[in-house]
Structure formats: structure tokens, C-alpha cells
């Protein structure tokens, strides 16, 4: 199992998130939650097209992983069953899983602006220009140097993009070369050349500031909001779980939590599935559902939000087979994302460093992330899915805390043991964002369509559209009949308003792969014009061949 090489940082073809977010609002993909009340940070609503896109992604995952799962390493189909567990579970669940004690982020407050951020997402910008010597990474290992600027970012690429997008952060300096560096370096160092108005040249260096540096010398670090010194607090741990209360009173005895992950609902039902479904190890349990995390700094559209959806499998296997299944799922899951339209150029597999591993993965094979190169992480990547070896941590913990017997009895081996668990855990919400980013294509050269959403046909919210060229002369009636025939299998839109060019442009922005137009020639020879979204190419086809045409390209 190989990892991708570091990203090429020689140029910056990143797409504009501002333009994408605006298109998502305009075309009904995603809206700010509670917008009429000025919104609520970290929450988003899916509009009509966004709901269809999300459902298409969800249904494809369920079909390909549960209903018709892939064959295993031995060529035999896998056995994967579905559950749908409660969002609120017994509070002991989260004590057993380690979330009560360990599900924390280090939080820092700006005492002047009253804003806060995660201490482990603070990137320092060191600027060396003119007579000032550049500070090397080795020098900073020996003693602390205060950065000239700070930026909140989860990756070096995101920090670099923030600098490029916000000219005020560098004013009056100018970046004269692309950022370069080793994105897989644990310290995430990036360097670019800069020049001041007088022609003096230097470098700007971006580096993650260690949490201990913030803790030990917060007064020497400028605020990412105001650039002022001495206004940051020392980092303190902040638990990410949403608390609530169950029952009529709100005392400590009634505390419960909204689930921060869907995995634990699977572990709680592991024995029920074994007892009712006649399965044997190895087998999997799958779930799609919402999770909630009280993120300190939700940002980057729906990438990091407080309410999101996950698609998870817990694959139970004999401990000695964990490595084989771990490598199997890493390969299967990366290839699946490619099958629905994400490209090799924007995908990579990254193995976690030891200090990144979750508590449940430290004794196992580790964890690989399927990462996508989002516009806000370019030239780096952001997590799309994790494949983790959770060992037998969860089942052991739940047996200890609950008293239930959770060991598996293997009849062939005549022994009881805790299965190891390989977990492919994908973000449904992040998957939607990746599909949106991949599809988003500015087309300034195309007449009528400023943007095209090049979705894979299987993912497209509207799979085809049927238009009468004009709303008269019998064309609407023929178009309506074709629409009625197609909508039994496909997501189809029927539209008679505006010019045909504007209707095509609207479908391009909605990501519709094919449009069929009924015109005067249709009435003469029973053919229609079909138009392809990505190239805007047009041709004619017999109207009774339209269904077969779509089946060949979309399925169904």
C-alpha cells in the first residue's frame, strides 16, 4: 500500500470558494441555517439540489458497500449489514469510548475581540526582508521567535491560500513565487519569495506554532484577528460534545450527549446483530447518520461544521487478519471515491504520524486518511475519510463498562475472542463538498453559462431536462409525455420558461448532464435535440431512443 508523493506547489489552480459558495446559494444547493435570523455559525441547510446530491452520494455508498458490497481478498462477497442507532445513547457509552475524558481541543480566546480558535490550528507567518536575516527552522528549534502574523488554518495549504486571498495580511509586500515546501513535514513548513515596494527581496515562511509555545508565551504571539500582542489566553481543553438533558429535570444525573460519531451505536448493537442475523466473523455493520461536535472554530463552508453526517463501516475480523483487511479497505475506499467522479489529481492517501493516532488505533495497524485537495487546503489536502484499525478497544471497553459479554465464539477455532475492528469512516457532508469542488468549473468562454457543475452522472441532482423549444405548436405536449416517461427512472426537470440558451445555462449550473429539446423537427420526424453539459455539443436522436440513451450513460 503506497502513499502519494507530496503535492506539487509550483502553481496555484485553486478554485474560488467564494464563487462556489455563491453558486450553491443561488442554485439551491446549500443555504446558511436560520438565515432570516442572521444564521447560526457552524450549521447549514441543504436546498433542493443539495438534498438530491447528498441523497445520491448516500444511496451510492449504501448500495456499493451494503446492498452490493465488494468482493473480499479471497474473491467472495462481503457480508455487511445495516443499523440505524439513536442519536442519544446512554451516557456511559461516551465514558467507555473515551469521549468524556479525551474528546477535547485546546482552545484560545482573544480577550479583546472575544473570538476563539483552536490552538493546534494556529500558523505563524515569519517575514524576512531587506537587512533582516531569514530565521531558519533549526534556529526556531532552539528558542522561540514571535511570528509577524498568525493565521487560523488546519493545513499549510489553507494558510497559504488565506494569505493569497487576503492582501491586507501582507500589505504592502508582494509574493513573487508560489509557496513551496514539504506538505508532509510534521511542522507543515511552506516558503515563498516576497518583495517590498522598494525592490527589497526576502521570504515568508509559514509554520504551525506548537501548542506548548502558545501555552508558555501567549503574550508574544499576535492575535490572528487583530495582530495585537498580549491579548491571547493560554490554551485550555474544551470538550467537543454537545450536552443535553434527558427527562423532566436538568440536573447532573440527567446529563446526556448528542453523539459525536456514529461508530459507538454500531458497537452497542454488535451483539444484537450477531444474535439475530446469523453472521460470523469476518463481517461488517454499516450506518449512515448525523453526528454533532461543538467545534471551536467551524469554517470552510460545510467542511468543518457542528452538525454533519457520516457513512461508517465497522468491519469485525480475527485479530491476526487485521492488517490484511486494513489494506483491503484502504484500497477499496480510495477507488470508490474515484468511481463517483473525484480525480486522482485531487486524491491522496496519507498515513497518520504516531502523534496523530487516536487512542483506539495506537496498538493497531494505524490509520490512513483518504484526503481531497479542497480549494481552501490547496496545495495541501483535507480529510475526506479515515480508515482506522481500532483493534479490540471498543468492544473491550463496552464489556468492562456494561458487564455484557461481547466476546465472539469462533466455532471453527473453538475459542472466544474480541474481534479486531477496521473502520472506514467517511464524511457524507465532506463528500458532498468534495463533489461540489470537483464539479465546479468556471467557463468564461461559454456563452450563457458562467459556471458548469461537471458532476458524475450518477451523482447529478438533476440527471436530465426536457424542454419544448417554444411553449406552443404542440411542442409542450410532446415534451410533457417524454418527461412523464423518463421521470419514472430518472431525476428530470421540465421547463418551458425563458430562452433555450438561458434554460441550458441554468441546467449547466445545476450540473444536469443531458438536455433534450423538442422542436419543429420533432413534429416532422420524431427526433429530438440532445445536448451534453460538459462540451455543450448537440446532436439529434429518435425520441423513442432517449430512455436507452440515458440507460447507457447513467444506468437504470
Indicate the topology.
Blueprint lengths: L16 H10 L3 E3 L11 E3 L1 H20 L12 E3 L9 H5 L2 H4 L1 E6 L6 E3 L3 E8 L7 H6 L6 E4 L3 H10 L8 E2 L4 E2 L8 E6 L5 E8 L2 H6 L19 E4 L3 E3 L9 E3 L5 H6 L1 H8 L5 E10 L14 E11 L4 H18 L7 E5 L15 E6 L9 E10 L1 H10 L5 E3 L4 E3 L2 E8 H12 E3 L8 E3 L10 E5 L6 H12 L5 E3 L5 H11 L3 E5 L1 H6 L1 E6 L5 E5 L3 H8 L3
Parallel strand pairs: 3-15, 25-26, 25-27
Antiparallel strand pairs: 1-2, 4-5, 4-12, 6-7, 6-11, 8-10, 9-10, 10-11, 13-14, 15-16, 16-22, 17-18, 18-19, 19-22, 20-21, 23-24, 27-28, 28-29
Uncertain runs with pLDDT below 50, 5 residues or more?
1-12
Main beta sheet: 7 strands, mixed
Strand content: 25-35%
Q: How much helicity do the residues have? A: 25-40%
Determine the N-to-C terminus distance. 35 Å
| Tertiary shape | globular
Cross-sheet strand order for the largest sheet: 3-15-16-22-19-18-17
Total beta-strand segments? 29
Mean pLDDT: 90
* Radius of gyration using CA atoms only: 27 Å
Please give the count of helices: 16
What structural class do helix, strand and pairing data support? alpha+beta
Amino acid at each position: 500500500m503506497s502513499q502519494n508523493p507530496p503535492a506539487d506547489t509550483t502553481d496555484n489552480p485553486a478554485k474560488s470558494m467564494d464563487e462556489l459558495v455563491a453558486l450553491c446559494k443561488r442554485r439551491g444547493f446549500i443555504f446558511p441555517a436560520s438565515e432570516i435570523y442572521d444564521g447560526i455559525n457552524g450549521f447549514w441547510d441543504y436546498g433542493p439540489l443539495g438534498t438530491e446530491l447528498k441523497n445520491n452520494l448516500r444511496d451510492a455508498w449504501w448500495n456499493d458497500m451494503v446492498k452490493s458490497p465488494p468482493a473480499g481478498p479471497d474473491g467472495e462477497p462481503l457480508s455487511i449489514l445495516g443499523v440505524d442507532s439513536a442519536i442519544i445513547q446512554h451516557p456511559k457509552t461516551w465514558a467507555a469510548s473515551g469521549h468524556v475524558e479525551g474528546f477535547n481541543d485546546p482552545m484560545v480566546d482573544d480577550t479583546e475581540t472575544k473570538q476563539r480558535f483552536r490552538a493546534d490550528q494556529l500558523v505563524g507567518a515569519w517575514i524576512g526582508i531587506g537587512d533582516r536575516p531569514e530565521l531558519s527552522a533549526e534556529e526556531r528549534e532552539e528558542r522561540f521567535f514571535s511570528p509577524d502574523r498568525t493565521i487560523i488554518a488546519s493545513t499549510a495549504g489553507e494558510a497559504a491560500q488565506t494569505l493569497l486571498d487576503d492582501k491586507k495580511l501582507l500589505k504592502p509586500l508582494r509574493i513573487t513565487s508560489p509557496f513551496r515546501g514539504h506538505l508532509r513535514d510534521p511542522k507543515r513548513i511552506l516558503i515563498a519569495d516576497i518583495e517590498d515596494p522598494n525592490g527589497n527581496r526576502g521570504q515568508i515562511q509559514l509554520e504551525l506554532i506548537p501548542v506548548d509555545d502558545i501555552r508558555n508565551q501567549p503574550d508574544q504571539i499576535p492575535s490572528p484577528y487583530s495582530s495585537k500582542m498580549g491579548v491571547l489566553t493560554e490554551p485550555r481543553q474544551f470538550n467537543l460534545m454537545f450536552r443535553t438533558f434527558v427527562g423532566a429535570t436538568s440536573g447532573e444525573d440527567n446529563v446526556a450527549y448528542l453523539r459525536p460519531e456514529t461508530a459507538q451505536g454500531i458497537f452497542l448493537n454488535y451483539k444484537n446483530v450477531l444474535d439475530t442475523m446469523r453472521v460470523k466473523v469476518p463481517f461488517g455493520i454499516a450506518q449512515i447518520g448525523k453526528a454533532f461536535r461543538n467545534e471551536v472554530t467551524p469554517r470552510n463552508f460545510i467542511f468543518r461544521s457542528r452538525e454533519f453526517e457520516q457513512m461508517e463501516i465497522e468491519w469485525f475480523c480475527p485479530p491476526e487478519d487485521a492488517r490484511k483487511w486494513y489494506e483491503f479497505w484502504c484500497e477499496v475506499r480510495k477507488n470508490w471515491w474515484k468511481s463517483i467522479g473525484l480525480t486522482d489529481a485531487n486524491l491522496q492517501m496519507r498515513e497518520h504520524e504516531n502523534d496523530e493516532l487516536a487512542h483506539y488505533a495506537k496498538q493497531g495497524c494505524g490509520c490512513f486518511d483518504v484526503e481531497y485537495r479542497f480549494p481552501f487546503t490547496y496545495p495541501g489536502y483535507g480529510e475526506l475519510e479515515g480508515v482506522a484499525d481500532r483493534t479490540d478497544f471498543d468492544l473491550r471497553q463496552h464489556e468492562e463498562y456494561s458487564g455484557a459479554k461481547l466476546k465472539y465464539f469462533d466455532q471453527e477455532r473453538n475459542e472466544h475472542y474480541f474481534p479486531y475492528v477496521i473502520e472506514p469512516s467517511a464524511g457524507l457532508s465532506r463528500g458532498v463538498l468534495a463533489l461540489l469542488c470537483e464539479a465546479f468549473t468556471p467557463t468564461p468562454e461559454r456563452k450563457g453559462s458562467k459556471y458548469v457543475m461537471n458532476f458524475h452522472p450518477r451523482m447529478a441532482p438533476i440527471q436530465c431536462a426536457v424542454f419544448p423549444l417554444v411553449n406552443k405548436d404542440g411542442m409542450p405536449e410532446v415534451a410533457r409525455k417524454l418527461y412523464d416517461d423518463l421521470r419514472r427512472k430518472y431525476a428530470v426537470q421540465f421547463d418551458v420558461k425563458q430562452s433555450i440558451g438561458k434554460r441550458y445555462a441554468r441546467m449547466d449550473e445545476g450540473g444536469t448532464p443531458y438536455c433534450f429539446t423538442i422542436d419543429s423537427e420533432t413534429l416532422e420526424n420524431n427526433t429530438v435535440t440532445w445536448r451534453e453539459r460538459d462540451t455543450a455539443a448537440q446532436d439529434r436522436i429518435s425520441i423513442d431512443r432517449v430512455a436507452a440513451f440515458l440507460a447507457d450513460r447513467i444506468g437504470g
